[in-house]
Amino acid sequence: MAVKKIGTQTVKFNSPPVIIGTSTTVGPKEGEGPLSEYFDIILKDDLYGEKSWELAESKMLRETVKAAVKASGKKMSDMEYMFSGDLLNQSMSASFAARDLELPFFGLYGACSTMTESLSLGSMIIDGGYADNIIAVTSSHFSSAERQFRFPLEHGNQRKLTAQWTVTGSGAAVLSSFGNGPEIRYVTTGKVVDLGIKDANNMGAAMAPSAADTIVKHFEDTGLPTDYYDLIVTGDLAQIGKEIAEEMVLDKGYNILKNYNDCGLLIFDNLAQDTHAGGSGCGCSASVFCGYIYKEMMKKNINKVLLISTGALLSVTSTQQGQSIPGIAHAVSIVNKGS
Description:
alpha/beta, Peroxisomal Thiolase, Chain A, domain 1, 2 domains, globular, 7-stranded mixed β-sheet
């Protein structure tokens, strides 16, 4: 009997996992943005000393894992599972990093929703009694993503104003069955939602319906009021998707306008940095959460957060075949103890 299931899509943990340490690595552009003081490592060169952007991304993920484990006060040998993924074919960044780290590995693909997917599954493993310490981590890289999904950078293609800038970044969080740090109280697993958007240069619009669906379902399942959270934050909708999500959630009777923001808007200054609609990528919500949000929670400036990472489930093949872009979003409720 699913005694921890509430509503139709949400799990409430009996023994909430604790986030005992995080770390972030970001690229030079991200390091020039509004959240620069919250990132642990800011690269001076987005090749990170490697021969390709793909290898640089994998190194970024690997080194972020090492730093997060150190920050948690644990050892790598204490990590029982690694939950990770990225945007590249066959999750190359995560797989190569897992090879080097020699950790038991669950490779995930939720596109830009992968951070909350990894936090969700890791939390279930811990609350279920299958492990005491896991690491949830993901990454993205502007140059590797552009090469795979759009055009070679050498082409110098003009980007549409609806386009988002894939974050070069990685965020890792260590979850434990006990310790000091914010707890993961609820997980709301999203459904794939597709309203027929086909423009790969407007992924905010493609992902917004899934974000709205998951946010509404979270509040329906838990019965919590929208003002329960200090911050409701989506992963990668940026300006256009955020506005659509706000309207869709409001249409369902939930007003989140006062406490809602998006990681793709927080990480860049869109006008000054010419990122058009804002940021996206697996590393967007990962680096914003593991950097800015987690550190503000540890300072008690923010106590209750609903993090909804959002993913566009397109591929090169589906785009070339003229298919629409399905979206997915998973929500994780993160609350400071005693709040």
